[in-house]
Design goal:
Largest sheet: none
Length: 355
Amino acid sequence: MAEPSPILDGFRAVFRRPAFALAEITWRWAFGAAAWTLILFLLIEYLDTLPVTPGDVFFLHTRHPRLVSQAIAHILSGSAQRLVTATLVGAAALTISWIFAASLGRAFTLKPLLDYFGMTNSGGLTLLRTRFWRGEEEGWRLRSLVGLNFLRATLGLAAVLGILASATVAGFASSDSYPRPGWVFLIFVPLALLVALLWSAVNWFLSLAPVFVLHESQDAFGSISRAVEFCRNRASAVAWSSTAFGLLHFVAFVLATAAVFVPLAFVRVLPPGIVLGAVLLLTMVYFAMVDFLHMGRLAAYVSILQTPEEAPIESSQLSVLGSQSKTTFPSIPPSDDDILSDVPGLVPPPEKPKP
């Protein structure tokens, strides 16, 4: 029997049940639409609070770079506090809404996925009355999911602060009297890459932990521990699946980037609305492919989890097997017609019968 392939199982799950990918796309795009609506609303409200004098309007209409810059500086003067306040309020609202949206979305997508792998084996055969649930509680476990997403949001904030700290540390290498932009670049880039690498690694474990929340009814920290243990025990399969879907994600990004340049090449021929619409359409197709691959990768991890792990053979078992493999042959009694009986010391000569 061929060994199950988690990558093929992941694609098989999302192709046989397109609702998995559609549910993932639905909650992500719904949150994205709400987030952009909130950002535009805050931006419009902020712009309405800016005072514009007739002199500023006159300078803007001149289209002279110096006059336009002076008008913009005069309009924005004194509005930094309002901008910071609006940014903090918007960021807090988006973070809280993302935590709850991601928790509900992951529960809606992951529970049917676990049910799917609980009712079908790696060969696609239906296993009746078989569940993939081992936890006693079969609820939504929203408290644990909210806790995990809160940790992810906190981790993202820490990453942003880490990038800002990297820029601050790199800025100490240069001064107004002795500018050293090269040293600033050489210091900032490694520090920023280190922060991004740490964020990516920890965020990956946090994104995998909901599987164990719903599969084993673990709490937030228990699911993180199980995710680390799972990756340690099934490192080879997890690495292959992550690499395969990562390469597919990169290929999708390259193809989408190349496709976006096609409508941009006709920017002087076609109306701007058509070009912008084509770019937005291609961007949405790319994000849909990314969500599809993300759901396939999650299905591959679930497939690895439901595949029985091969138990290692202990040394005591090896010694028993080795002792059993040693075969002993019974000794052959000498006979009168033994052809080797004349060789001294090899076969003892037959004893003469006593009179």
